[in-house]
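Here we describe the complex-level prediction in full. Unlike the single-chain runs in Section 2.1, the three entities below were treated as one system.
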Amino acid sequence: MNKAEQRDTAIRRTIRSIPRGKVATYGQVAEAAGYPGYHRQVVQVLARSEGLPWHRVLGAGGLIKTTGEDAFDQRTRLQMEGVAFHGKRVDMKQHQHVFATRRR
DNA sequence: TCCGTGACGCGAT
DNA sequence: CATCGCGCCACGG
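The structure predicted for the assembly as a whole is:
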């Protein structure tokens, strides 16, 4: 498989590893997948692929970066998992998922 | 091949 | 805390 597919696979696997009630940012997902700086690629994957816990991926600082209906869904889903919000941001101190530090 | 666009990040102002 | 600017990457026109 080519580079693009490897990144895509690694990113998806990383996103699926986020446990219920926890969240991670685009940048963290990219880095944890082994591709620091590919946060924009993470967005592409989330927007296209199905079957991923997309609502557990937030913007830097625990801020929801989605728009329209999706923003509402994401916030609702997270709250159902027990994720607490501080105004418009998620309480990262309490819900940020820490990925196992791995390097390639 | 060049250019604009997007569920982005981050430091500076 | 709100904005701006610049950097980053893949895609589509």
